[in-house]
Amino acid sequence: DTTDPAGRTALLQKAQKFIADEYVNGYIFQLAKTGVANAKINGLWENSPTQANDMTGVSWSD
Asked: For the chain, what is the mean pLDDT?
């Protein structure tokens, strides 16, 4: 019963543990990425869950 404070706390703790154990990198938003890139570049993210530029999957095509 979620109207019971102790029951609600137990449910929230269970949910938090599940998320921490199973979805460590579960992002809750997508940061819009505005920019221009050469059409021959493959693997650039359209949007980013972080402000870092992950270039590990980027490559050139002919």
From this structure: 83
CA distance linking residue 50 with residue 23, whole number of Å: 16
* SS3 call for 32: strand
Nearest alpha carbon to residue 49 among 10, 16, 14, 23: 23
Rg (CA), the chain: 19
Q: Exposure string (b/e) for 5-22, b if CB count within 10 Å is 16 or more?
A: eeeeeeeeeeeeeeeeee
Helix, strand, or coil (residue 54): coil
Encoded tokens for 9: 């706390």
* Placement of tokens 């972080």 in the chain: 50
pLDDT tens per residue across span 35-48: 888 999 999 887 77
